[in-house]
Amino acid sequence: MRWAGPLAILIGAAGCVQVTAPDKPIEINLNVNVKQEVLVKLQRDAQEIIDQNPELFPK
Question: How far is Cα 12 from Cα 44, in angstroms, rounded to an integer?
Answer without folding.
Answer: 67
